[in-house]
Amino acid sequence: MTKQPLADEPEEWPVASSADLHRDGWVMALRADQVHRPGHTEGEPFRRLVLEHPGAVIVLALDEEDRVLCLRQYRHAARRRFVELPAGLCDVEGEDPLEVARRELVEEAALEAKEWTHLTSAYSSPGISNEQMHFYLARGLTSADRGDFELEHEEADMEVFWVPFGDLRDAVLDGRIGDAPVIVAVLVAQARGLVRTP
Fold first, then answer.
1. How far apart are CA 89 and CA 51, in angstroms?
2. What one-character-per-residue DSSP string does 78-123 give?
3. Rounded to whole angstroms, how far apart are CA atoms 4 and 23?
């Protein structure tokens, strides 16, 4: 008997109907689907809310001393100022996530990177959203010109600072940092042996 590899599998259940609950000019929308289990289309469908999301990128940028470029930014929904990494939406249809990551590093941190490593891709909350996050490790950093891009709203108030990777990892493991993308990026980079740790 051949053992199947441990992996997620693509699958689609029948949708009897779908209704928009919120949709405007922004890249995200909220809809309600009426879903049937496969082989059970005679009974009543059940309702599932879906947050349509174009996806996002997260950049773990390290300098030659293995310090991580971090941001401290207010997030209104959580009513909290988080320690974060440069990140952004995949809001240009068809754009490669790596190109989005390059752009976000320039826009949020005024940096470019010579070396890029894809760490992983993960769904943030598949019970409610189709958002897929793409994580990258960036090295070989140099200063870059933001051009005419201007930080506004929460980004205009964010703090940019450098943290030794080991300190960031310890803060993640101690529970002092609660931003899921930071946690994923740090632990995957360490598990794959891509960052020297004391």
1. 14
2. TTEEEEE-SEEE--STT--HHHHHHHHHHHHHSEEEEEEEEEEEEE
3. 40
Cβ-based burial of 25 (10 A; exposed 0-12, middle 13-18, buried ≥19) = exposed
Tell me 58's DSSP state.
E
Q: Is residue 198 classed as helix, strand or coil in its secondary structure?
A: coil
- Encoded tokens for 61: 């940028």
Q: Give pLDDT tens digits for 130-185.
A: 999 999 999 999 998 877 767 666 666 678 999 999 999 999 999 999 999 999 99
Distance between the two ends of the chain, CA-based, in angstroms? 44
Residues of the chain with CATH 3.90.79.10: 56-191
CA 114 to chain centre: 21
Domain 56-191: state its class: alpha beta
61-102 tens-digit pLDDT? 999 999 999 999 999 889 999 999 999 999 988 899 999 999
Residues whose CB is less than 8 angstroms from the CB of residue 113 and which lie 6 or more positions away in sequence, other chains included: 61, 102, 105, 138, 139, 140, 141, 142
Annotated active-site positions, please?
155
16, 34 contact by CB (below 8 A): yes
Instruction: Classify strands 46-52 and 159-164 as parallel, antiparallel or unpaired.
Output: unpaired
Residue whose C-alpha is closest to residue 197's, from 162, 165, 163: 165
